[in-house]
From TrEMBL:
Residues 41-60 bind DNA. Gene3D superfamilies: Tetracycline Repressor, domain 2. The keyword Membrane does not apply. Pfam families: TetR_N. SUPFAM superfamilies: Homeodomain-like (SSF46689), Tetracyclin repressor-like, C-terminal domain (SSF48498). It comes from the Bacteria. Keywords: DNA-binding. This is TetR family transcriptional regulator. GO terms for molecular function: DNA-binding transcription factor activity; transcription cis-regulatory region binding. The keyword DNA-binding applies. Residues 18-78 form the HTH tetR-type domain. It comes from Actinomadura hallensis.
Length: 197
């Protein structure tokens, strides 16, 4: 029996196509982590994934789309974790605990793909604020902050908490200033406590 398509959902993938997609994304993510997005070619990704280069081009079109697919793949995992995962990041924990867990998890997520996120956020310069994930993060923080401080300007505070996690500032702190990820997380804790305490 054939499954009917659901409106608004992408068409179902064949099992082999889904398997190839996962292999390509995993290979691309590994190569990008090792050498940076600018140094990775479609040919290298195909070789590392064990597929033909035509498969990579048919699936993703060009290197830029492949890079964005790598970002999107990781982003979906992160969103599922804070929307539906176990507490304290997911539902079920106190709002303060969820806020801290979210900021720490977002710092980890930024650390994993900082170079890719910088590329995505920089073209054009306001791209970060047009992207759907920023709006989702913002709404999530507004909801948490509203439970902690219902009298506060939660929209402003949410932007203030997200600002330090812009890829350009994050990379400056990590690479130019030599800050550890733990130091950045401690700074986010102090900032959050100052805003909501």
């Amino acid at each position: 029996m054939r499954e009917l398509p659901v409106v608004g959902r992408p068409p179902a993938e064949r099992a082999d196509a889904a398997h190839n997609r996962r292999r390509i994304l995993r290979a691309a993510a590994d190569l990008i982590a090792d050498r940076g997005p600018e140094a990775v070619s479609m040919d290298e990704v195909a070789r590392a994934a064990g597929v033909g280069v035509g498969t990579v081009y048919r699936r993703f079109g060009d290197r830029a789309r492949l890079v964005f697919a790598v970002i999107d793949d990781r982003e979906r995992e992160f969103q599922a974790a804070f929307l539906q995962g176990p507490p304290p990041l997911g539902p079920g924990a106190a709002p303060r605990d969820r806020l801290r867990a979210f900021l720490h998890a977002l710092a980890d997520r930024t650390e994993e793909q900082a170079d890719l996120l910088l590329m995505a956020e920089s073209d054009p310069p306001e791209a970060r604020f047009r992207e759907g994930s920023y709006h989702l993060y913002h709404r999530h923080l507004v909801m948490l902050l509203g439970r902690i401080r219902p009298d506060a300007d939660t929209a402003y505070l949410a932007d203030a908490l997200l600002a330090p996690l812009a890829a350009n500032l994050f990379l400056h702190q990590r690479r130019t200033r030599g800050m550890s990820l733990d130091r950045i997380k401690a700074g986010l804790d102090a900032l959050a406590e100052g805003l909501i305490g």
